[in-house]
Every structure is written in C-alpha cells, then in structure tokens.
Specification:
Elements: H1 9-20, H2 29-47, E1 52-54, E2 61-65, E3 72-77, H3 86-89, E4 93-95, E5 98-100, H4 104-118, E6 127-132, H5 143-153, E7 155-158, E8 168-172, E9 174-183, H6 199-211, E10 221-229, E11 239-248, H7 251-262, E12 272-281, H8 290-299, E13 305-308, H9 313-319, E14 323-325, E15 332-333, E16 341-343, H10 347-363
Parallel strand pairs: 3-6, 3-7, 7-14, 8-13
Antiparallel strand pairs: 1-2, 2-6, 4-5, 5-16, 9-11, 9-12, 10-11, 15-16
Length: 364
C-alpha cells in the first residue's frame, strides 16, 4: 500500500505554477518537450513510479501507469493555444481567489488536481494517466494511443475544464472543419472582366449554400468562419477559399453534412470546387457518461451535468463505447482567452472528486 496524503491547495498551486511557467503551445515540439518533462516530474513526485515520454511528430505524450489490470484512464493534454511570449505578458498569478496565466483552466489546472487527488488513494493499481501533446489541434498524433488505452481500461475520466457553474460535461457535439477551395480564371477587371471566372462570386454562392445546411433546432451548426480571395483590385480573382466550422449531435447528422459537402457543385460555368475535411471528432452521447455521472453525483450531491458544443478527446473514447465522463478539471472560465482563470477554492473539491471516481471504478 502507498502512503497517502491529504490534498494541499498550496502544493497544487506550486505544481500549477511549474506547469504554467513552461509554455506549451501546440505545434511547437521543442516547447512541448520541455512541458512534457515537467508534467512527468510532477506526476512522479506526487505518485511515484516513472512516467514515460512517448515521442510523436506533435511532441511528447506523457503516460504513467500504476500497474495491474487496467481499470481507468485519466486523460488530459499539456498543449495550450497560447503562443510563446504569452507568459511574459500574462504571468502566473494568484489573486482574489483566482489563478491566472496561460493554460490554467484549459487544462493545466485539471492535470494538477487529478494528480493530487490520486495521491490521496492508498491503492492505485489499474490506474493510468495519459497527457497528450496535440489535443488543441485535433489529436492526430495521439488518437490511436488514447483509443488503445481507453479500450484497455474500460473507463475514461477527462480533465477538461468544467462547464459553467462547475458542471460536468456529460455530452459533446461532434465537430470538424471543412475547407472549400474554388478555382476560377483571372482576367483584367477593367478591360475584359467577362473573360474571367470570378472565384469570389462563386465563393459567395457557396457560402450561402453551406450556411443553409445548418439545422440549429436539432443541434447542427454550420458556420463559415474564414474566407479569402483575390490578389489585386483590378484582377478578377482566380482563387478563393472558405473555411467552415461544423457541430453535430448525432451520427445521422454527421453523415448528412459530410455527404452535403461532398455534393457541393459550382454555380458559375468553368468554376471548379475541391472540398477537404470531415467531422473529425464524433459526437459524445450523454449515454456514454450516464453511469459515471451517477457515481459523481453520489460523491458530490448537487453536481450538475451539461451537454456542450465543444469537442475533446472524450469524443473519441465515447465513440468506442467506453464509459467517459468529461469536464472533471478546473472550475473557472475564459478558455482560450486572455481572461482565462481558475477558481482556487474549488481545487480541493475537484481533486477529491477525481479520487472518488477512480476508487469507485476500481472497486466496481
């Protein structure tokens, strides 16, 4: 049996500072290597054993196992959306009950809370921790690994930040990005405009067609978010690009949307369209979290659950049929924004919640 400790908020703040002060922007393997080493050191110092760094093109993923038959996967990520230099402008600070700094809420605070919660348990056999390096950019290098460990363990606790009011995330929409590339033909806008094929006009038609695919009443949102076209003000544009964010609540809607994008056709003669992308994160149905959420409510009466529009790695594990509960990380807000914050007063409670869930799953 391990020697256990009580959760210490001061110790959690110490570890959170260590993580935040090693910046970890996605797609920066060098920065993520430094971050992974600190994540591994925090895990090892609090839980013992050795955390493995699993190299990938995105940067190292951190994997720790207590040994024994796998029972529960505690899943998080150490990459953040903030570029290098953000820390200098927005240093780690604890003031008026809030911790602030790049990544405190999404999701470094959740990592720290989970590790300290696990440290209160006498027996950790069957527990694994996986902290990936590319969740914020689609989990392309980590998806196979996290799916493998989820299937092996049979239950997943995701350390993303809580929903509003500290609610757990019991369902998530499937989400993806599509890129519609349009090829026209350039010509002089003053001398012979009719000789060209205006890719910008074609893009305008496509934006209207694409936006009409949304069905907000059943949770499907289709939102053109970025568009570009043209080179000079006196040239009929030969190329245009439209980027589209898509969110769906069901596999049926995923299939409909993907088929509709594949069927997009040009309105202008001689214009050409190429569509890339897919709904890369499948929906996480609330049924995937039902049993684990019931346990969480017994541990913390009054706890609420919410289905949310954002995606996480919980989408992948739930799609495999693995019991998955999300939003177990920090209570706070402002994810991906400069006002991001973590509520210090909730840290101990959330750490103990993760510990209680792990114990319940192991003993089931």
């Amino acid at each position: 049996m391990r020697k256990t400790v009580h959760v210490s908020v001061d110790a959690m703040i110490e570890d959170l500072r260590a993580l935040v002060e090693v910046e970890s922007p996605s797609r920066d393997p060098d920065a993520l290597t430094a971050s992974a080493k600190v994540v591994a050191a925090v895990i090892e110092s609090r839980l013992g054993g050795q955390a493995a760094l699993i190299e990938s093109e995105a940067g190292p993923h951190v994997h720790w196992s207590a040994g024994g038959d796998p029972k529960v996967l505690v899943l998080g990520h150490h990459d953040t959306v903030f570029p290098l230099g953000s820390l200098e402008r927005r240093p780690f600070t604890v003031e008026a009950g809030h911790a602030t700094g790049p990544g405190v809420f999404d999701m470094l605070g959740g990592l720290v809370q989970a590790v300290h919660g696990l440290a209160t348990l006498e027996d950790l056999s069957g527990v694994e921790i996986l902290v990936t390096a590319d969740e914020e950019v689609g989990s392309r290098s980590s998806r196979a690994l996290l799916e493998e460990r989820a299937l092996a363990c049979g239950a997943v606790l995701v350390l993303e930040g809580a929903a509003d009011g500290g609610a757990l995330k019991t369902g998530r929409k499937g989400c993806g990005t599509f890129q519609v590339s349009i090829a026209g033909r350039a010509s002089h806008a003053g001398l012979e405009p009719a000789a060209g094929v205006n890719a910008l006009i074609e893009a305008a038609h496509q934006v209207l067609d694409i936006a009409a695919l949304g069905r907000p009443g059943i949770g499907t949102t289709v939102t053109p978010t970025v568009a570009s076209a043209g080179t000079l003000d006196n040239v009929v544009p030969a190329e245009a690009t439209v980027i589209v964010d898509v969110r769906v609540e069901s596999d049926a809607e995923r299939e409909r949307i993907e088929s509709a994008f594949a069927a997009l056709a040009p309105h202008l003669d001689e214009a050409e369209i190429v569509v890339r992308g897919a709904i890369s994160r499948p929906p996480m149905p609330e049924s995937a979290s039902a049993d684990l959420f019931a346990v969480a409510k017994r541990l913390l009466p009054g706890l609420e659950g919410k289905a949310v529009g954002g995606g996480s790695d919980g989408n992948f594990t739930a799609a495999l049929g693995v019991a998955t509960l999300d939003g177990l990380g920090a209570v706070g807000g402002g994810a991906h924004a400069d006002h991001e914050y973590l509520v210090v007063g909730s840290m101990a409670e959330r750490a103990n919640l993760v510990a209680g869930l792990v114990k319940a799953v192991r003993n089931a």
